[in-house]
Specification:
single chain; alpha+beta; Immunoglobulin-like; 2 domains; 4-stranded antiparallel β-sheet; 2 helices; transmembrane helix
Length: about 200
């Protein structure tokens, strides 16, 4: 199973060349991607990242989007992608940190702002020995990142693993088999009545 984790996360205000504030922020991230498979390589489509923050516990506000170009990852390999992302206008870190109520993933109150990172891509697996490739599988992953309200840095020094799921689509033969099974279940009583009627017609008077 592919493993995604946020190794580093940092947000700061953005300024123009003249020092003027664009009322935007810059997010720095480092994403680790691990293929622990001993016999399968992975082909990734473009990896789309969405960065958001919780204005309240129930209000998730999108901040920025970022696309990582698709690539191939070998057997039992680890890679990382890191970059800076500029948020949309009106999303200055100073305003976010000042206005957002204190939220925490822990029961105790802390001076953290909670961000969320969502990942969406599609992958294909390739068997190393035979060269057999799997079908294209849609993948989604997500995690929440606590950021210190004063420094803008990820509060924990530990990597944050993304929860993720792979959508498994039913194959054509399986769908066909299910349709046949449903038809057989529906038609069985009708066939029984027809056979019973035919037997009665054949019974001597």
């Amino acid at each position: 199973m592919i493993q995604y984790s946020i190794q580093d996360f940092y947000i700061a205000g953005a300024e123009g060349t003249s020092g003027s504030n664009f009322n935007q922020s810059i997010i720095y991230f480092k994403l680790d991607i691990v293929n622990p498979g001993k016999s399968m390589g992975v082909y990734y489509d473009n990896i789309n990242l969405t960065f958001s923050y919780y204005a309240t516990e129930d209000d998730l506000v999108p901040l920025a989007n970022y696309a990582i170009q698709g690539f191939r990852q070998g057997v039992d390999k680890k890679t990382d992608r890191k970059d800076f992302v500029v948020t949309t206008r009106g999303m200055a870190w100073q305003e976010i940190s000042n206005n957002v109520p204190v939220l925490s993933l822990l029961p105790s109150v802390s001076s953290d702002v909670v961000f969320r990172v969502d990942l969406a891509t599609a992958v294909r697996f390739r068997e190393f020995m035979t060269g057999t490739k799997s079908k294209r599988l849609e993948t989604m992953a997500w995690c929440e990142v606590e950021v210190d309200q004063m420094t803008g840095k990820k509060s924990s020094d530990k990597a944050i693993k993304l929860n993720h799921m792979i959508k498994h689509h039913l194959s054509g033969w399986l769908v066909f088999g299910l349709i046949i099974l449903l038809l057989a279940t529906f038609l069985s009583p009708c066939l029984g009545f027809l056979c019973l009627g035919a037997c009665r017609d054949c019974t001597p008077a």
